[in-house]
Design brief:
The complex is a heterodimer of chains A (227) and B (345).
Chain A: E1 2-6, H1 9-16, E2 21-27, H2 30-33, H3 39-55, E3 61-67, H4 73-77, H5 80-84, E4 88-91, H6 95-104, E5 110-112, E6 114-124, E7 127-132, H7 148-151, E8 168-169, E9 172-176, H8 178-188
Parallel strand pairs in A: 2-3, 2-4, 4-5
Antiparallel strand pairs in A: 1-6, 6-7, 8-9
Chain B: H1 13-19, E1 24-29, H2 37-47, E2 53-56, H3 68-77, E3 82-87, H4 93-105, E4 110-114, H5 135-147, E5 165-170, H6 180-190, E6 194-199, H7 203-215, E7 223-228, H8 234-243, H9 251-260, H10 274-301, E8 305-310, H11 319-325
The structure holds iron/sulfur cluster (2 copies).
One iron/sulfur cluster (SF4) is lined by residues 152-154, 156, 159-161, 163-164, 169-171, 177-179 of chain A.
Chain lengths: 227, 345
């Protein structure tokens, strides 16, 4: 899922600026699960903004609402009326949610309440870690199900580099070395031979390097028959 | 039109020395953090005659420095032979190939392909990195440019190809240790003509590594130069032991360094005069150089080690006494064609 983190109250205040009517919009999917932008966080953020604006001597009208998914038009339609009544929308969705609101409500000024971090999972209570960089051409089949694109600090295809030490990456003792993990896993599965092949340079076109990406599935599109 | 290399792959001095079967010596030169070319000329003067080729580091430890190719070009002007280092951190495949065409046109004939330290270590930690290709893929790419006259995309090109004697690095003691000989084998398979290793201080550990390398036959596919470097002080030895991944410094060497400074050991910082500090430094440095000489002599005995790479960082004047002390001076001059048996590389 998409992992995000809340911006500081200071930054939220500066983003909201002088707007008087504020709608905080939470999202019920990924950012709810990672405790960054669900209904609970939306309510807390809205209360914090209300209180701090009061303390600052210029009280704002701040309300909040949470939709099932900010990244789908049909859920955004449900809040069209509330959105129309405010000066600014503070989205607690991921970067996709913020942009969906901007795209769906052309007249509305929307600002992000979260920093969208990565695609990952909770490895334990309170800890989230990156797992996928959406490179567009998955090579997990070559690496025993551990992604070197997202999890090796240098995205090496023929790792590990010389900086791997005691299981962690040269960048930080808190980052496990992806190539140590790959090596260990392939060794324990008796498939170390996979690592002896030279992996050729990756085709990054399928990644962001090919420009913004889009998928079109003709089989799923709604074609309006012309008569 | 293949360049006439007289039976050599490239004909660089390094290649000639190695193919003639001499124990090769390379040394490292760190370009300055400024546009001062004279520093390079001065350092080159310290190395002249004491090594077969000089490594020019490429923004080492991710700190911006004068470019390795420009420094290499200065060395060519000075009549020394450069090995330019090239990392995958700062350039994509287009930039690497373009810069290497330029380097070849400037008369540079040796290249060391490196992954590169992560930029968060250096002086621009907020930079975006590249890592479009990795060091093995770079070896493969430049080998194909030389031998097949094709760019990485597969397109062939006309006109002179960049001819490099291609090197790669090895970290014998980095984790996972068991994989290191296999990764070295991969580099040889990718086309590496020579290998320069991370600093070696622990001879038994390196012997173990080399035994595995020999078992894989890799020493017959590529020339392996063991990395050595003089210790400057006990503190430096301890720092490397505990902070630099992939470097093993035996306690015995740290004790030797401490012993060298023993006459000044009892005194506090305030008690030590300037002259005391100078004398202590000199004693440490002399011991560091002595240890380095002994290491080289031991490495020379290990089957499959074709030479040494001396890394005396910001201490280039240590190279001469080390090379002389190890009996590796004067350096050979190889003018004839390679012996037929020297098919290696
Ligand atoms: S290989 Fe690409 S798609 Fe697969 S997990 Fe890694 S980044 Fe994601
Ligand atoms: S230490 Fe491991 S994870 Fe870090 S850059 Fe090197 S190979 Fe990648």
């Amino acid at each position: 899922m998409i992992i995000a983190e809340q911006k500081s109250l200071e930054e939220l205040k500066s983003l909201v600026g002088t707007a008087e009517k504020v709608l905080v919009v939470g999202c019920g999917t990924c950012v709810t699960v990672c405790f960054a932008g669900g209904a609970r966080e939306a309510a807390i953020t809205s209360a914090s903004l209300r209180m701090s604006s009061k303390l600052d001597g210029s009280p704002k009208q701040v309300s909040d609402v949470t939709v099932q998914r900010q990244c789908e038009w049909e859920y955004l339609d449900q809040i069209a009326e509330q959105v129309g009544q405010v000066d600014i929308v503070l989205s607690l969705g991921c970067g996709i949610g913020v942009q969906a609101i901007a795209e769906h409500f052309p007249q509305v000024w929307v600002v992000p309440g979260l920093n969208t971090k990565f695609l990952g999972l909770p490895t334990e209570q309170g800890v989230w870690a990156e797992r996928c960089a959406a490179c567009g051409d998955c090579i997990l089949g070559l690496t025993g199900g551990i992604c070197p694109i997202a999890r090796c600090s240098k995205s090496l295809l023929n790792g590990p580099c010389g900086g791997s030490e005691a299981g962690h990456c040269e960048v930080s003792p808190d980052i496990p070395c992806a190539w140590q993990l790959i090596y260990d896993r392939l060794t324990s599965l008796g498939r170390l031979n996979v690592l002896l092949d030279l992996q050729p340079p990756k085709n990054w076109r399928t990644s962001r390097d090919g420009g913004p990406r889009q998928i079109v599935r003709e089989d799923l599109r709604l074609h309006i028959e012309e008569d | 039109m293949m360049a006439n290399t007289n039976g050599y792959l490239v004909g660089s001095n390094l290649e000639r020395v190695l193919k003639a079967g001499h124990f090769a010596v390379t040394a490292e030169l760190g370009p300055p953090q400024s546009a001062e070319g004279d520093v390079i000329r001065k350092k080159a003067g310290l190395l002249r005659g004491y090594c077969d080729a000089v490594n020019l580091t490429d923004n080492q430890t991710a700190i911006v420095r004068l470019s390795s190719i420009a420094a290499g070009a200065i060395l060519v002007q000075e009549g020394l032979e450069p090995i330019i280092q090239m990392t995958c951190r700062d350039r994509n495949r287009l930039a690497i190939q373009s810069d290497l065409l330029g380097a070849a046109a400037l008369g540079i004939r040796n290249l060391l392909c490196l992954t590169g330290d992560h930029q968060t270590f250096g002086n621009h930690p907020s930079a975006k990195n590249v890592f479009d290709i990795d060091s093995l893929q770079m070896v493969q790419m430049v080998t194909a440019m030389r031998d097949e006259r094709t760019f990485q995309c597969g397109d062939s090109f006309k006109g002179p190809e960049p001819r490099f004697f291609v090197g790669a690095a090895a970290a014998p003691f980095a984790d996972p240790v068991d994989f290191r000989p296999l990764r070295l084998a991969k580099k040889a398979k990718a086309g590496a003509n020579f290998i320069q290793t991370q600093l070696v201080y622990d001879i038994p550990a390196f012997e173990k590594f080399m035994a595995k390398v020999r078992a894989l036959g890799v020493h017959k596919q590529t020339y392996i130069l063991a990395g050595v470097g003089p210790l400057k002080s006990p503190a430096m030895a301890k720092y490397m032991k505990s902070n630099v991944p992939g470097i093993l410094v035996p306690d015995e060497l740290i004790e030797r360094m401490e012993l060298a400074g023993a006459p000044w050991a009892g005194k506090s910082k305030e008690e030590l005069t300037k002259d005391d500090k100078k004398a202590r430094s000199a004693a440490w440095q002399a011991e560091g150089i002595q240890i380095c000489i002994e290491l080289i002599n031991k490495l020379h005995q290990i089957e499959g080690v074709s030479g040494v790479h001396i890394m005396a960082i910001e201490w280039e004047d240590a190279v001469r006494p080390i090379v002389e002390g190890a009996g590796l001076s004067p350096r050979p001059v190889v003018t004839e064609s390679p012996p037929l048996a020297a098919a290696l590389g």
